[in-house]
Amino acid sequence: MTLARFVSCSSWLGLLTLLVWLGGGIGLALYLVAVWDPELVARYGPLYLQGLRTTLILVSLSFLCGMALSVPIAAGRLSKNRVARGLSSAYVGFFRGTPLIAQLFLIYYGFGTFRPAFEAVGLWWFFREAWYCGVLALALNTAAYQSEILRGAILSIPKGQWEGARSLALPRSVTLRRIIAPQALMVALRPYANELILLVKASAIVAIITVFDLFGETRRAFSRTFDFQTYIWAALFYLVIVEIVRNLTARAEKRLTRHLQR
Predict the structure, then answer these.
(1) Residue ranges of the domains in the chain?
(2) pLDDT recorded at residue 130
(3) Residues 134 and 101 sit within 8 Å (Cβ to Cβ)
(4) How high is the pLDDT of residue 262?
(5) pLDDT tens digits, one per residue of 100-145
């Protein structure tokens, strides 16, 4: 097959895929119009909004806690100390290599077996609540991914930046804070946004341990109505959140790189 023919077939395949998605979107819209039930919306709409609020708080806390935790982990990964590098690598390897649901169950159900020990140190109030366990599991998981994002962003900075700072006799802490960190964060902005989007979608898993976030409220609404549109509305809520994050990231990236635009 010649290159021109391959490109032509790819174009037709892409157009066909686009038409299929367009048809699916139109069909979904028509379905929602046909099954629109004002009573269902009035009854479960406030619960959906409450679940949405829970999801936003859960994701925000998990992402910020994970961001704070990712800094020392990334530092450990970049350290010349074998112990620090080994411990950080083991942490990243575990949380990136095991399913999030397994991590959540290990924290929520597994730590429950150590209840006497947690009661002795006054921490049982934390591990007995599904909400706190969900935040902890998501924070620990995203910290592993964020540490790799941060490490990669720092390594992407040219060595000339470090050498220039040393030639000016700048302390390492000042070099990191004033020179390396701003450039690294600009490189990491898009990966951070992608990780936030993944965390928004992954947060739905906490509904399994009885946290009534957006997906938890959706499951409860479906169990009472057996109406499939309850899941469709939840999917649309998640889609809106993702699109807001994507657009805000694009605007921030455009603003931060405006000095590079011609």
Answers:
(1) 40-257
(2) 92
(3) no
(4) 56
(5) 999 999 999 998 888 898 889 888 899 999 999 999 999 999 999 9
Euclidean distance between CA atoms 58 and 203, whole angstroms: 8
Q: Per-residue b/e over 152-169, b at no fewer than 16 CB within 10 Å?
A: ebbeebeeeebeebeeee
The dotted CATH code for 40-257 is: 1.10.3720.10
Render the burial of 28-48: b for 16+ CB within 10 Å, e for the rest.
eeeeeeeeeeeebeeebeebb
- Three state DSSP letters for the chain: CCHHHHHHHHHHHHHHHHHHHHHHHHHHHHHHHHCCCHHHHHHHHHHHHHHHHHHHHHHHHHHHHHHHHHHHHHHHHHCCCHHHHHHHHHHHHHHHHCCHHHHHHHHHHHHHHHHHHHHHHCCHHHHCCHHHHHHHHHHHHHHHHHHHHHHHHHHCCCHHHHHHHHHCCCCHHHHHHHHHHHHHHHHHHHHHHHHHHHHHHHHHHHHHHCCCCHHHHHHHHHHHHCCCHHHHHHHHHHHHHHHHHHHHHHHHHHHHCHHHCC
Q: Identify the segments of the chain with pLDDT beneath 50.
A: none
Inter-residue long-range contacts of 232-239, CB under 8 Å, 24+ positions, other chains counted = 232/28, 232/31, 232/32, 233/48, 234/48, 237/48, 237/52, 238/200, 238/201, 238/204, 238/214
Rounded to whole angstroms, the Cα distance separating 258 from 260 reads 5
- pLDDT at 12 (0 to 100): 75
Contacts for 95 with CB less than 8 Å, ≥ 6 apart: 103, 140, 141, 143, 144, 145
